[in-house]
Amino acid sequence: MHLCIDARIFSPKFTGIGRYTHELVKQFLVLKPDWKFTLFLATEQYDVFLSEIKKNPLYANINIQLLEANEKMYSVQEQTIFLKKLNKIHADIFWFPHFNVPYFFNKKFVVTVHDLTLSKFPGKKMNSFFHRFIYFKILRHALKKSKHILTVSQNTKDDIITDENIDAKKITIAHNAVGEEFFEYKEKLQSEIEITEKSKYFLYTGQHREHKNVITLVKAFHLFLKNNKNYRLVLTGKPNPLYPDVINYIKNNNLEKNIILAGLVPERELLQLYKNAKCYIFPSLYEGFGIPPLEAMAMNTPVIASNSSCIPEICENAAIYFNPNDINMLAEKMQELVKNKWLEEKLIESGKIQVKKYNWKKSAIIILKKFEELL
């Protein structure tokens, strides 16, 4: 089998499509040492992965070809230059871990569709008629022309079936998982972010976009503060200037001392923030999978999560749920957790069990089996 992979989004960092691709490629190489692999990588990750291959003895005898591809998603170059590069490869199957498949690419391919976020929440950056037209054109080409579709949750599978009229038999679920570093992390050093008392803060990690619903979390925490003056809320992730509502609310209500905008933090720092938090809160309106709650569970941190989209499917009984449109309900759940030690302990134990249901090897085996069936 010769498998060609579009790994232009490829990264060992914690979350996102880059991490998804990186984790699965590592599993593929170990599980199928007799296969031939061709990877298209952006220059930066080309150098990083080439070094990783040379250092790891498990990859010593793997037949792998790394090629550079710096053509950006949704660009003219993707539709022309990258298309030419793909057509030069004579692989049995091509795998695109994102639905950005060049429109005129006609060889046998499998695509992963993680979610339909841009269909449901266009955002403010690329919401013009032209951008929407291009997005749906590319998405629907990938869905219709692919030999098979991979996705990461039943919720996203249902969305694809309902919203895009795709046959359920054409879609296979292979879940995301948590990186090994979350289970291996044993350090107990204090975070560099100044927290006056251990476990006296709630944590959110991720982007600041409309569907992430961070403003609801901030407003709920403001209510919670009225009876819990010694708590803080830590928000990681780069603030998005297109969505200034969070920063404006914090400033207008003089919450700068209570709500910490940590920005992008180093991975080791993020692990420590997870470890020391009283609770992780996931207020999202829509997700394809939702890895952060599982990361918190791996660090023995309780989770309060939105009851929308795939989140109850992935977290099951290992989280407290709230309506993401109900600020008062979230504030009440936060109060409930800090006042009930037994509930905190129950969530920690449930989380330990839940996070172990997902692993990259299991998902890689499901995907590789599907590749073989398509030959």
- What is the end-to-end distance? 9 Å
DSSP strand (E) fraction? 15-25%
> What fraction, in percent, of the residue positions are helical?
40-55%
Please identify the top-level CATH class of the largest domain: Alpha Beta
CATH topology of the largest domain: Rossmann fold
Strand order of the largest sheet: 3-2-1-4-5-6-7
Q: Quick one: CATH superfamily of the largest domain? A: Glycogen Phosphorylase B
Q: Structural class, please?
A: alpha/beta
- Count of helical regions: 15
The parts where pLDDT drops under 50 for at least 5 residues are none
Kindly give the count of domains.
2
Round the mean pLDDT to the nearest integer and report it: 93
Biggest sheet layout: 7 strands, parallel
Order of helices and strands: EHEHEHEEHHEHEHEHEHEHEHEHEHHH
Q: Which geometry do the CA atoms define?
A: globular
Radius of gyration, whole Å:
21 Å
Number-wise, the strands total: 13
What is the level-2 CATH architecture name of the largest domain? Answer: 3-Layer(aba) Sandwich
